[in-house]
Q: What sequence folds into this?
């Protein structure tokens, strides 16, 4: 037995009210019009001492009434009375060869037990058997599949790879707390990326995804060559203070990584364009940074900032992150891929937010019984009280 | 089917109640109605052998040539004086039956019986230390008694000091019926009875008491509110039970002893006793004496 609203149990203190009333009434006594006063001895104070409860039955009924009311309001829940739904385990498999290979055994067991196995795609496509376990062309959308999971499910197993790039959005909302089965082996070896700039300088994206100027190039290396004219930039219609900050940022990048950014007077000659207006014609060869202009850009070569890029307005400038953002977009533009970062189990688990509405789904299953008892007690109490004239 | 006291009192119609009660008495109604010589004409009937020839109405014979006898209802020579105590203690109520209502119905029923018998009736009340004659003897006395009884309410108390009531001291032959609770603080009622006593008079006292008054057995705290004054005492029923019962029993038996006088009859009646039963007991005792 548990209470869904335990705070209301303080209402039980209300039981003292009828007891006090009955005590008080007992003390006060019933008025009786008496003729033979002369024969009542008044010498001894014969008022009843101590507690005397009048009309015990009515009092009991009133206490029971209050208890029932409190139980009703505090939503008594008795586990045994409500039938537990049968276990319904749902397996959600991310369409990924690595995962299906790794958890073949577990999935096979799930099929043998007749449990439901689905692809974690938009339609929550069911997987009928082990043979159909081929994730060709399926797009992994974990959130959409989580949304489609039936409410009657009691357990959720998610087979998931642990690479950041595979997990699309930051957090997932799930009705159930998922059991995560994470792909453990990193079969996909990421190829190293190298950026070579003029002057024979080479930069390498190292294992932790950082750009490193020290090359320990072993194995296959994908080299990305960045031409000199790629570092040409053009400053458009932007304020003087913005100009200063942008130039300082580019200067900082140059200091660290040796990218020789050069300012150009003509917009055609430049690859990087800083402007406050959206470009009239977009050249896919160029990378645009648009400040003080709030747009949701769909193009990969357009970066827009909501505010002016000066110290007063932009948070990026205040926190000194502007060079980082520029470099990030710059590298992405030239095809440097982000390294997949592996996520630990606890990190993954934190990604799954469990909507905790399990409590509400518990219905107070005694309500009808309590209401019935309450009505019965009330009727009995009224009848008795009326008969005794209280 | 016998009507209960509560039903009779709830009728709130003394005439009807009196009829119902007297009908419950097997031998009450027609006994006293005798036909004979009297002043009020009732009917003519044929002369039959054995009748006194003096009774033949000769004027009627001269008119019609028939021997007819003039009959009238025999007049009883008994005078009945009804007396009702109207002090506040008469308002005592138990189980929905008020002492005053019981007394009213008792007097109405007795008056009805007396009226049927042709006895002359008068009616007195004792209220606030005065004995007042409300109805004097007359042929219409019964109706007038009922009229006054309907209106009567009890209040106040009866003074303890001894008083003289000349109106009670008549020396004619009569039957006095006094209805009260006779819960006297001193012996005020005994004084009145003493004043009324006379060899020619017969005194019948009806003492109406409640069950709890005679034998208290309620439990719990009670706030006893005096009916004759405004005083209130809160007492526990269980603790006073014994002392109260002892003292009231002593009082009642002493009172009964004090009234062991010639020509005085005391009837101690409970509110639960049926009125018809009380009257039949009274009639039975009277016919024996």
A:
């Amino acid at each position: 037995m548990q209470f869904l609203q335990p705070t209301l149990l303080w209402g039980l203190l209300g039981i003292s009210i009828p007891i006090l009333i009955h005590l008080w009434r007992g003390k006060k006594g019933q008025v009786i019009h008496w003729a033979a006063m002369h024969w009542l001895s008044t010498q001894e104070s014969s008022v009843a001492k101590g507690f005397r409860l009048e009309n015990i039955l009515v009092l009991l009924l009133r206490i029971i009434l209050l208890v029932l009311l409190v139980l009703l309001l505090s939503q008594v829940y008795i586990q045994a009375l409500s039938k537990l739904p049968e276990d319904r385990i749902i397996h959600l498999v991310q369409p990924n060869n690595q995962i299906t290979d790794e958890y073949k055994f577990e999935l096979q067991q799930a099929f043998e037990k007749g449990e439901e196995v689905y692809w974690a795609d938009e339609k929550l496509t069911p997987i009928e058997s082990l043979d159909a376990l081929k994730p060709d062309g399926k797009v992994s959308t974990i959130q959409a599949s989580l949304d489609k999971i039936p409410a009657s499910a009691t357990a959720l197993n998610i087979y998931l790879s642990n690479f950041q790039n595979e997990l699309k959005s930051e957090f997932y909302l799930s009705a159930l707390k998922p059991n995560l089965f994470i792909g453990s082996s990193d079969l996909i070896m990421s190829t190293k990326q190298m950026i070579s700039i003029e002057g024979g300088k080479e930069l390498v994206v190292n294992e932790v995804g950082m750009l490193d100027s020290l090359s320990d190039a072993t194995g296959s290396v994908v080299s990305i060559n960045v031409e000199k004219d790629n570092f040409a930039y053009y400053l458009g219609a932007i304020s003087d203070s913005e100009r200063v900050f942008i130039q300082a940022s580019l200067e900082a990048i140059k200091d660290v990584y040796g990218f020789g950014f050069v300012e150009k007077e003509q917009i055609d000659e430049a690859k990087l364009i800083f402007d406050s207006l959206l470009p009239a014609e977009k050249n896919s060869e160029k990378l645009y940074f648009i400040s003080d202009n709030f747009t949701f850009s769909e193009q990969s070569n357009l970066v827009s900032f909501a505010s002016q890029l000066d110290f007063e307005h932009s948070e990026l400038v205040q926190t000194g992150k502007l060079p980082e953002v520029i470099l990030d977009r710059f590298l992405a533009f030239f095809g440097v891929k982000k390294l997949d970062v592996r996520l630990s189990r606890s990190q993954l688990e934190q990604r799954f937010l469990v909507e905790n509405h399990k409590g509400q789904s518990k219905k107070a299953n005694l309500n009808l019984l309590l209401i019935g008892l309450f009505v019965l007690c009330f009727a009995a109490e009224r009848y008795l009280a009326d008969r005794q004239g209280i | 089917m016998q009507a209960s006291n509560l039903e009779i009192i709830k009728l709130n119609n003394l005439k009807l109640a009196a009829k119902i009660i007297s009908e419950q008495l097997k031998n009450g109604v027609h006994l006293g109605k005798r036909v004979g010589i009297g002043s009020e004409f009732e009917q003519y009937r044929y002369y039959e052998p054995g009748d006194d020839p003096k009774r033949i109405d000769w004027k009627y014979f001269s008119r019609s040539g028939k021997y007819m006898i003039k009959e009238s209802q025999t007049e009883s020579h008994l005078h009945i004086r009804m007396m009702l105590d109207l002090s506040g203690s008469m308002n005592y109520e138990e189980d929905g039956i008020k002492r005053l209502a019981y007394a009213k119905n008792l007097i109405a029923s007795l008056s009805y019986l007396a009226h049927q018998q042709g006895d002359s009736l008068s009616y007195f009340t004792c209220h606030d230390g005065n004995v007042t004659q409300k109805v004097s003897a007359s042929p219409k006395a019964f109706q007038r008694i009922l009229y006054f009884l309907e209106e009567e309410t009890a209040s106040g108390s009866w003074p303890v000091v001894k008083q003289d009531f000349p109106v009670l001291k008549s020396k004619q032959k009569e039957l006095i019926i006094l209805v009260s609770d006779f819960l006297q603080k001193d012996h005020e009622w005994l004084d009145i009875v003493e004043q009324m006593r006379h060899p020619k008079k017969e005194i019948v006292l009806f003492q109406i008491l409640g069950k709890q008054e005679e034998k208290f057995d309620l439990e719990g705290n009670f706030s006893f509110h005096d009916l004759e004054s405004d005083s209130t005492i809160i007492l526990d029923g269980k603790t006073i039970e014994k002392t109260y019962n002892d003292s009231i029993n002593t009082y009642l038996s002493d009172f009964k002893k004090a009234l062991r006088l010639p020509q005085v009859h005391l009837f101690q009646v409970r509110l639960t006793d049926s009125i018809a039963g009380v009257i039949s007991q009274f009639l039975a005792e009277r016919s024996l004496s």
